[in-house]
Amino acid sequence: MSVLVDRSTKLCVAGITGREGSFHAANNRRYGTNLVAGVTPGKGGQDADGVPVFDTFHEAVLATGANTAMIFVPPRFAADSILEAHDAGIATIVAITEGIPAHDELRVSAHLRRTPSVRLIGPNCPGVLSPGKANVGIIPAAFFREGNVGVVSRSGTLTYQIGSELAQRGLGNSSIVGIGGDPVPGSSFVDIIALFEEDPETELVVMAGEIGGEAEEQAAAYIAEHVSKPVVGYIAGFTAPPGKTMGHAGAIVSGSKGTAAAKAEALESHGVRVGRTPSEVADVAVQLLGG
Amino acid sequence: MDLLEYQGKQLFARHGVPVPDGRPASTVEEAVAAADQIGYPCAVKAQVQIGGRGKLGGIRIAANREEARDHATAILGMDIRGLTVHELWLERASEIDAEYYASIVFDRTARAPLVMLSTKGGMDIEQVADEDPEAIASLHVDPLLGFQDFHGRRLAFEAGVAADVVRPVAEVLAKLYETFISEEAMLVEVNPLIVTPGTAGETAGRQVRALDAKVTLDDNSLFRHPDNASLRDTSAEDPQEQMARERGLIYVKLDGDIGILGNGAGLVMSTLDVVAQAGGRPANFLDAGGGSKADAITSAVEVILSDPKVKAVLFNIFGGITRGDEVARGLIEAFHQIQPQVPFVVRLEGTNDAEGRRLLAEANLPNVHTASTMNEAAERVVELARESMAGAAR
User: Where are the alpha helices (H) located in B15-165, listed in sequence order?
Assistant: First the structure.
């Protein structure tokens, strides 16, 4: 088992004829992901390396039974593409695109919430990898293997760093979920931790947060109430000055809000162990899994 | 992107939020001419992106032309908490009966705009929230429904605004919401939102006006708002940050002496933390981004070294899309172009890391050290920065 993507995933990629989209779609397919379709308006009827391309998500779903979308279109078109995938009945939407206007994300999020069964991962995220099963996104799969640690993170490369530290200690992953660094992520830590709690293969969860917002604090409260599996936390940005956006649009300490120290404290006060460095996170994970 | 007060007020005026009549000026002569046109008494206000400028002498009232000249002369070029005043905003001085507070923030947790109103204006709202949270009325607006009249009424009644201004306050809130949505703002704040005195001590004719404006726009939406994009105040920007932005790099200047480059915002933040834990002080945040090519890395080295405080540099790369060999090539090219005088520590892992390390070993760059883990790299760079300081002191 794993969460969000697995062997039943039938992937349709928006932007499959673009440079980045075609590269990563091919990569995902090579990994074993069942890539069934692509969508590029005006290029319906063509194929991308043998994958049929459709003008609309609706046609793609009808013809191929696609159940997962990966959004790889430029920021100004991305919100529309997410809404189209949702309208066509796709239940898992992974949006890789970085730089989507925040107000677009607000409207998308408000609309998608009306259909609770639909899940948006991202935007501005590296995607989801379930080692040995499926890879939807840009996570370099070679560094990860199957195992029992679920990882959820707001950052891409930091996830790879933590994953690699875990791998060095012999631990693998059930799934790795990048929820993205934007102000309005489609899925929160709470959403993904709830999935890991239900997933029989996952025995421990690592959550890697960063400055900005209150998602880590909410996760801390949720974990204390609802999660039986051990969770190890990490927070990046202790040295970030207030008022500066640290790369991710969502990573900003506003006034006294959203600091790394407050987040680490919230997690610890709810019984979540917090590693001070990525390698300490892996050490704690090993300890909690008993060796 | 944060706007200056007058830029915010100009956006407000466009959406029908009442603001005092005013004009910008960047020289004393312009200021005097503007004050003459507006009439006296006239407020001369420093345009800097920092709170509390009034207490620091950045806002003064001129009763006549001579005072306008004196105040403009005093304020232009003034230093307010490290920011130099290059621009003034002159506006008709307002008489004030009451000071309220109004804002709309982009509430990430609720994933909806949060509208706030308080009758305790003129002071720091975080302080009000701490001391007297009851004094702030707030509600979320469904972004798909928009701001309705009842939202405004409810806020005005709950905040306890004076009965005669319930309607105008509610109208101002609706127009602020319109500004927030149409200009794609992350924050719209008015502190104070004033009520002017009525005629002859009566409440009749009292008006509501935005006396200040704090607006933050979403950088990601500026492509839809070319007029707003041109409002960026580059004079307030650090020269290194400006240079980095022009080259498409994400750079934040800090005040330490260890230059940092990494790929991916989370990893770079984490690198800063690990360096700080090792006893070092990061000089900057620099995210070279995903898939950086050699020339981006060369540019990044230039930006980092343009800060004279930098005594050592750490490269922490975990390649996904970014390839280790490209990073190595960029660094080698940077050494050819600018011959850095400070030590570098490079930690390369991920895609094509072996090839990157091989290229670096082959190039045998002076004073470039490699480390195999992030912790080791951090400790090494802190050590080298210390040695470099000691060397300079000798």
Answer: 28-38, 65-75, 125-131, 149-159
